[in-house]
Amino acid sequence: MTEALLYAIMVALASRAAMDAWFEGSIFATARAYSEAWRYSDTKLTSLLGELLTCRFCLGYHVTFWFSVLYCINGASWLLLLPVALTARALEYQLYLLLKEEDEPGSQA
């Protein structure tokens, strides 16, 4: 149980870093521009992919899930996949809200 909580925290932090790199990093600026354009595509699959890659909330679930899969491949029980993924997503989202609140002008820390 303690191991699962520890891995959930690690997955949450790794997910937060990956999400920040995608949404804030200049290295992914071109890819973000393409995915923004895909949102308005006529094909359903391309439009869905564009929507997924530009929505922080939606993409967060996928990033934490796949990081959790990597955790399970590393030797953890597959029974922990869903609890670790959902816990990590919840922690990542709370971390996002906390840091977003601190970054807003006029907010008091």
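The record above closes out task 2.4. Task 2.5 opens with a second protein, given below.
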Amino acid sequence: MWIGAENLVPLLGLGESPLIERFAPVLIENISEELLYPVLISCTSAKVKKTKKMLLNSVLKRENPKSANDFAEWLSLYLQDEDKSIARPCRKIGYVLGLVLEQEESTKRIAGLMERKS
């Protein structure tokens, strides 16, 4: 069914939001588990908040991967995002997969300082 899906991975890595928005959700929700991680890694180049949220929601729609620990590093990239609308679904995915995700200490400190100034 997904003949050539692996050929889209380098294209997704270009970070072009329209390309990622069109192909990534369909791939994430339907490809085999062995191709899922390369697709997710290539999509980390997405810069637009809407696209990042779309990727995280697509992960929530698919069946949980058997090797959930492999995804902890990928999720940690999104957990470091300063935007709570990105970090929240990331934590939810971690919870669903049974992963313990830690936000980097420097990100926690910066967020704490910004909250104190407000």
